Amino acid sequence: MLAFHVPEFRIEPLSRPELRKDPIIDRWVIISTDRLGRPVEFVEDGPAQPLARCPFCRGHEALTPPATYVSPNEESWLVRVVPNTYPAVRGRTGRVAAATGLFQNAEAAGLHEVIIACPHHEGSLSRLPPLHLAELVLAFQARLRHLGMLEPPQFPVIFNNQGPAAGASLEHAHAQLISLPIPPSLMAREWQAGERYYRDQGRCVFCDLIEAERSRGERVVEESDRFIVLSAYAARFPAECWILPKRHQSHFERIEPSAVPELGEVFSRLLRRLDRGLRQPPLNFYVHSSPPFAAEREDYHWHLEILPRLTGIAGFEWAADVNINPVPPEQAAAYLRSIEV
Ligand SMILES: [Zn+2]
Ligand SMILES: [Zn+2]
Ligand SMILES: [Zn+2]
Predict the structure, then answer these.
(1) Rounded Cα gap, residues 187 and 196, in angstroms
(2) Residue among 302, 300, 305 nearest 141 (CA)
(3) Which of 79, 100, 235, 318 would you call most buried, defined as having the most Cβ atoms within 10 angstroms of its Cβ?
(4) How far is the C-alpha of 208 from the C-alpha of 201, rounded, in Å?
(5) Which ligand has the minimum distance to the alpha carbon of residue 205?
(6) Is the pTM above the cut of 0.85?
């Protein structure tokens, strides 16, 4: 995604970013002029044009705002979290939208942080050791726990863009966290679907899905003691995979510390399979979890969704919200299983 730039079009900056709800359906957008000035290393169809000094490399800490989290310490950090200099959301008064009327909006109040994945200039998470990915998981957990204590309640979204075709503007591997004062549209859909299934069936839909997939086996990419990697049944993109804990757990930040290295291992193996099997595809991943302020719940089960972005989103997908995936998920699973990692 390139920064918006039309020289003749002078955009007046807004004093604050704003959330707006589509007047017809439950779909939110953020209008944020703060995003206009951000640096971009990737130009259309070309290799990255690195910035003279990468703000995410160790030794360049002065180029970012002070860290909100470092592991293990500021001098020899492995993972570092900093406020985004070009935030999509900001502040935290969180005035929530009016309940009625066509034009509903809310202050886009929340945190926008960059989770710098490694101290050296590395573009691909698949090249980080599994234990380093475990460090990244610990950083996600720490920030989710922090957000769970804020008032008004925050709905955090943790996501990663790798490669320009997946929306990355800087090459150095990093994830981001954006928290919103309202439930993000897709996550709300999943939470409601979980509630509905639980009401009807008395079970967690994800637990049932894991059981059904394990008994069929054809879409299971790999299993460890505590985690399972599935090629998604209704994958939107070729080789879309989900990582889930096999035992029910509603919150990502509540993964026991003893299980985090195993998750790092499983995640690393999946990223390496995708990298080797699909020749370093651009990809996105994100955490779907219960809101961190919410109590333990039986009807929702956290998971990571990983989307290789080998096919684009075109007119039909925008028009219909129905993706066309040319690769049967069962074949994707068999192929990914066959790759040595
Ligand atoms: Zn760097
Ligand atoms: Zn479950
Ligand atoms: Zn999900």
Answers:
(1) 14
(2) 302
(3) 79
(4) 10
(5) 2
(6) yes
**Does residue 94 surpass a pLDDT of 90?**
no
Ligand (nearest to CA of 248): 2
What's the 215 CA to ligand 2 centre distance in angstroms?
16
Alpha carbon of 306 to ligand 3 centroid (Å) = 10
Q: Which residues, by Cβ under 5 Å, contact ligand 3, an ion?
A: 288
Q: What is the pLDDT of residue 1?
A: 40
Number of other residues whose CB lies within 10 A of the CB of residue 211: 12
Cα 259 to middle of ligand 1, angstroms: 29
d(CA 302, CA 201): 19
CA 14–ligand 2 middle distance (angstroms): 42
Cα 187 to Cα 163: distance, rounded to the nearest angstrom = 24
**Ligand 2 centroid – CA 244 distance (Å):** 9
Q: Which parts of the chain fold into alpha helices (H)? A: 130-148, 185-201, 205-216, 260-278, 315-320, 329-338
DSSP designation for 15? S
Domains of the chain as residue ranges with CATH: 1-341 (3.30.428.10)
Q: Which of 156, 63, 59 is nearest to 112 (CA)?
A: 156
Prior bond to 119 cis, omega within 30?
no
Grouping H, G, I as helix, E, B as strand and the rest as coil, residue 75 is coil
**Residue 245 CA, ligand 2 centroid: distance in Å:** 8
Spatial distance between the Cα atoms of 227 and 141, rounded to a whole number of angstroms: 17
Length of the chain: 341
* Distance in Å, CA 314 to ligand 1 centroid: 32
Q: Which residues of 228-250 are buried (b: 16+ CB within 10 A; e: fewer)?
A: bbbbbeebbbbbbbbbbbeebbb
121 Cα–ligand 1 center, Å:
4
Q: Rounded to the nearest whole angstrom, what is the distance from the C-alpha of residue 307 to the centroid of ligand 3?
A: 11
Among the bound ligands, the one closest to the CA of 51: 1
Distance 210 CA to ligand 2 centre (A): 8
pLDDT for 56 beyond 90:
yes
